[in-house]
Amino acid sequence: MSTYLRPTLRCARALTPRVARSALVRPAAVRLYATEPPKEAAAEPAAPEPAAPKTEAPKSSSNGLLISAVVAALAAGGYYYYSSSSAEATPTATFVPTYDDYKKVYAAIADTLEDNDYDDGSYGPVLIRLAWHASGTYDINTKTGGSNGATMRFDPESSHGANAGLKAARDRLEPIKAKYPWISYGDLWTLGGVAAVQELGGPIIKWRPGRADADASACTPDGRLPDAAQGSSHIRDIFYRMGFNDQEIVALVGAHALGRCHTNRSGFDGPWTFAPTYMTNDFYKLLLDEKWHWRKWDGPKQFEDDKTKSLMMLPADMALVKDKSFKKWVEKYAKDNDAFFADFSKAFGTLLELGVPFKTEETWTFTPTTA
Ligand code: HEM
Q1: What is the pTM (predicted TM-score) of this model?
Q2: Any residues with Cβ below 6 Å from ligand 1, and which?
Q3: What average pLDDT does range 15-40 have in this prediction?
Q4: Which of 60, 266, 283, 322 could form a disulfide with 257 if both were Cys (CB 3.0 to 4.6 A apart)?
């Protein structure tokens, strides 16, 4: 077990098996994350619209994609007009954000991750999940979905079953959006994922701005994100639709080293690793090294480890060792954390960019505040 424990970084808190178990058996009423309503409200109030660009898209048009294309062109050009002093959308200043401005946003996100009253002490894992679910709706054939648009702000996408619980992440970033109104939600959420990975000890992720927010008409249909109860052919259908291959799928799911499942969100329960706020290749090691059995409980079918009964695996996680083509990558990443980090960094960076009409080739990196 001790091989899975690592020194902790900012926000990192290792779970001993006992602590992990006690978290699992804590009654729902006193669970630390129970501050959120059990089910995400269907009619979630729309987050405030970003600052109005000087040349506004035609308001009469119901075509969200057209609006988003116009706004994207403006945003990608780096021009933002906003009123810094009043709530009205009267443009009073021209502001062209630079790398240093995005660096300030990165620092603000890094600063908001830690919270001892939330889950295992960090909003990092749920921010990573927000970035992934905002991006993972991409369909390579129709070129719809993806992080451009940030349509999860709106019903029906906000109330898709797969997105249950992500309001916690969106709300956590809201004060940062209020402080830096020139950043689009799509850029903020994806930068949130980058910051969370890096601050929790993961690899550096290349990132660039350029996402423009769309309206509710650009929401993607339900069913584009993976169903944890299913196996390898479903996983391939979902990730191939985004344009990923088997190796990239296995690298991406390694993010399950972080965070936990919540009965009031997905219905599943518990963390995958003993240090759920510190990114390592432990997910793969545990998947291979531990013995797993079906957990006996009245929740959805999930696995628990024989030894401590404090860890979990989803049926979809287990598919990664049942399928030969997936398993060879699990074995590689279990042996080689550097290879995992390199491949995760590339695949996660790609995921966050799916479907975004960037106007610039240049990507940026941000130094972790813990470095
Ligand atoms: C087969 C693919 C996947 C399935 C079926 C899946 C399923 C799930 C489920 C059911 C949860 C629990 C949600 C909750 O109850 O709060 C979860 C959490 C999480 N997932 Fe995935 N996931 C997949 C891929 C990914 C990918 C590609 C990433 C990121 C690159 C990711 C990152 C996370 C993180 C960080 C959490 C923890 C969230 C928290 O602690 O609040 N997952 N996932």
Answers
A1: 0.82
A2: 125-126, 128-129, 132, 165, 226, 228, 235, 252-253, 255-256, 258-262, 265-266, 268, 314, 316, 348
A3: 33
A4: 283
